[in-house]
Amino acid sequence: MSEPWVIRALLAALLLAPLCALLGVFATARRLSFFSDTVAHAGLAGVAIGSLLGMLDPTLPLILVSLAVAAAIFWLKEHTELLTDTIMALLLSGSVAFGIVVLSLLKSRPGDIHGFLFGDILAISRSEVWQAAALAAIVMAGVFLQLSELSLITASEEMAHVCGVPVRRLNYVFILVLTMTVALSIRLLGIVLVTSLLVIPAAAARNVSRSLRQQLLLSVVFGVVGGAGGTLLAIHWNVPCGPAIVLTSIVLFIASIGFGKWRAQPLSLR
What we know:
mainly alpha; ABC transporter involved in vitamin B12 uptake, BtuC
């Protein structure tokens, strides 16, 4: 367990899993789970473009395409009468189709395409760990500095407007941060599974928390346990890390349901 690749994998899990869980509290409360799924699947088009350009590491085009799709969602929402879920379904299917077509036209497909689809945290590099650390530090500091404003926007955007909160600016910043986090977390769980790291810990925390602050704290705890625990179990049993992290988080979610129901039962007087 002292090999460098194991340490890098654990560090990445300990940085990105709680970060996704923290943002997932706001994303699920604001019904942005499908948004993150759309942005994640758009990453396939970014990987395809990077491969077409001959890039060994397609992370940059992956992030740029994800940001472009996020911007397209908001532009279409403001300039058309389409429903939001219709827009996201259109862009998700379109970006995946584009990525598949481009990859099929390449003479040699990238060897790590499986890692981008299903995650390959064991192959994460030192630079990617530093990127995750920088992103986690900046985002977590920003969330806790703007916690009151974000909480108010999550509860009611109209009330936040009345209270003088810059709703539009904070919305765009949140979407930018969420998109960046999803794009960088693809290495952890892959395009197919990355949304689960946003949704499952946040949902588990909601089952056992009684306030937003408590839910934020517990979601981070569940993210740490699910990310690090799933990584260790994957290494021990020699199974894929991404699915192991998801299944570990699912176990935590099921346990949170049982604990929440047990705590909600009235005390019996005998």
